Amino acid sequence: MRRVALCACAWLVPSHLLADSVLVAVASNFAPALATLTIEFERASGHKLRTAAGSTGKLYAQIVQGAPFDVFLAADQTRPRLLEASGHAVNGSRFTYANGRLALCSRDVRASDESLVEVLRLTEFRHFAIANPNTAPYGVAALQALQALELDDVVERKLVRGENVGQALAFVVSGSAEYGLVALSGVQVAAMAGGFWEVPAALHEPISQDAVLLARARNNPAANEFLAYLQSTGAQQTIVEIGYNLP
């Protein structure tokens, strides 16, 4: 009877005192979108969301080494799949939450269409920023797009590689690089002076971004609720507005 009484009393505790927290490892391209989603999720659920942003490759390495993350929002499908296979993530929890879009941008050139490519070909410049393709899927897509646009020779000796796609964008925003190939979502959130052109998806492999529940959070209500929220209509609308396609 005592146990029943204690359980009954628990329902009388205000919901915010029963809230759980979830630590999300998020690919840097999605960090601005997640900041908006965090406000919406915390308001609706009462849970607390904490985030750690970085390149997908580095976050993956930290997870394998035992970093205490609950959810992984990657910028690819490969690493979440590997985490499931190795037991670091819960089998069957993986899904694609967004498809990334790539943008060619410049702080100094105001073109908003493919003419930006021609300006790039005809203009002297010192640096062209991309994410490090060894750790960031957006860096891989950038190299593919440069080759498809026949710009690889133009930028080969001028490439500067950010640790992640957010840092690559920061190079352009600060003027350290005159041009960059980065996440469209970051360009839109930064709202920098200058111009950008969305690179056609056909010029690079799809940037399919997967989420996965990590093994340590199997029984974490906040982590499970957050992944469910990420697939909700409201969250998906926010994701599209910030510069992604839905799967």
Strands, helices and their partners?
Blueprint lengths: L1 H9 L10 E7 L3 H15 L2 E7 L1 H9 L6 E3 L4 H9 L8 E6 L1 E5 L8 H8 L5 E4 L5 H12 L3 H4 L3 E4 L2 H10 L4 E5 H7 L4 E4 L8 E7 L7 H10 L2 H10 L5
Parallel strand pairs: 1-2, 1-3, 6-7, 6-8
Antiparallel strand pairs: 3-10, 4-10, 5-8, 5-9
Helix pairs in contact: 2-11
Describe what you observe in this structure.
The protein is of the alpha/beta class and 247 residues long. It has two domains: 18-99 and 206-242, Periplasmic binding protein-like II (D-Maltodextrin-Binding Protein, domain 2, 3-Layer(aba) Sandwich); 102-198, D-Maltodextrin-Binding Protein, domain 2 (3-Layer(aba) Sandwich). The protein is built from eleven helices and ten strands. Strands 2-1-3-10-4 form a five-stranded mixed sheet.
Unreliable runs, pLDDT <50, ≥5 residues? 1-18
Q: Any idea what the CATH architecture of the largest domain is?
A: 3-Layer(aba) Sandwich
Beta fraction: 15-25%
Helical stretch tally: 11
User: How can the largest sheet be summarized?
Assistant: 5 strands, mixed
CATH superfamily placement of the largest domain: Periplasmic binding protein-like II
The topology string of helices and strands comes to HEHEHEHEEHEHHEHEHEEHH
Structural class: alpha/beta
CATH class of the largest domain: Alpha Beta
- CATH structural fold name of the largest domain: D-Maltodextrin-Binding Protein, domain 2
Shape: elongated
Major sheet: arrangement of strands: 2-1-3-10-4
